[in-house]
Design goal:
This protein has 247 residues and is of the alpha+beta class. It has 2 domains: 3-41 and 186-240; 53-177, no CATH class. 44% of the residues lie in helices and 17% in strands. It is built from 7 helices and 7 strands. It has helices spanning 3-39, 42-45, 67-71, 115-125, 179-192, 204-230, 232-241, and strands at 79-85, 88-95, 98-103, 132-138, 151-156, 163-166, 173-177. A 4-stranded antiparallel sheet has the order 4-5-6-7. It has a 3-stranded antiparallel sheet with strand order 1-2-3. A hairpin with a 6-residue loop joins β6 and β7. The longest helix is centred in the first third of the chain and has 37 residues, at 3-39. The protein starts with a helix and ends in a 6-residue tail after the last helix.
């Protein structure tokens, strides 16, 4: 083996060891977060097990207030949908400045929702144990909600500390949060290494660590291949499994 080859091997060995130290903590976090995230059913994490699932209903649009009347209420309308909400038919209209909710029987505008209607929407969605407590209209919600604001937050008194986030524009439940979701979200943050928004799986930090992990694996393969070619790998195995000398 030439001097240059020996030097290269030593450089790769030193680099391999330092890469291992650099990756060690993050690999433990990746493994532990993977275990935690795979432990809980995703339906439980999302709060779907405590949510009322509304069956779709076929509605005949000709029986209701003409949609042209509600379109005139908003500028730049791009979409009108007829659906049921709290057991009654409503129009959800999307315009240039947002969305709005209309009573499909009378054409009356229902949004932005007052607290009483937002409370009804929360009670209708939740099927877990516990009662509905405080309702808060938030412009700056906690980090667990990352959607459009303002938003109604409904707080329940169940053991999971369920929080529902309801759109004041449409009455839709935008997010369901509970203690398991918060635990899951924390480990998801550690897993994808997005410590700010907790959503970007392609952030620069995880790219750097992924590339570092690849270098660690390749350098390890190089070192093993080199010892195989030199016959030293066999010697290593022999020493490893050689019986201890007799006393």
């Amino acid at each position: 083996m030439g001097w240059s080859t020996v030097r290269l091997s030593r450089i790769i060995l030193v680099g391999h060891r330092w890469l291992g130290l650099l990756l060690a903590v993050q690999v433990v976090l990746w493994m532990s977060s993977g275990v935690i995230m795979s432990w809980f059913p995703i339906e439980r994490v999302r709060g779907e097990t405590a949510a009322a699932i509304e069956a779709p209903v076929q509605l005949n649009a000709t029986r209701f207030f003409p949609p042209g009347g509600v379109i005139a209420e908003l500028q730049g309308v791009t979409d009108v949908r007829l659906r049921t909400w709290l057991g009654k038919p409503v129009y959800v209209v999307t315009g240039a400045n947002g969305r709005a909710l209309f009573d499909a029987d009378t054409g009356a505008r229902m949004s932005p929702l007052p607290e009483a209607l937002a409370r009804k929407a929360a009670e209708a969605d939740f099927r877990g144990e516990g009662d509905l407590g405080r309702m808060t209209l938030m412009n700056n919600p906690p980090p667990e909600f990352r959607g459009k604001t303002p938003v109604w937050r409904a707080e329940f008194t169940d053991a999971d500390k369920t929080r529902l986030y309801i759109s004041p524009e449409t009455g839709e439940v935008l997010a369901r949060r509970n203690r398991i979701w918060r635990l899951y979200d924390f480990f998801w943050m550690l897993h994808i290494m997005d410590y700010d928004e907790r959503e970007n799986f392609n952030n620069p930090l995880i790219r750097v660590f992924a590339a570092t992990g690849l270098l660690f694996a390749l350098s390890g393969l190089f070192l093993v291949a080199q010892r195989l070619l030199n016959g030293r790998f066999k010697d290593d195995l022999s020493r490893q499994f050689r019986p201890p000398p007799a006393p």
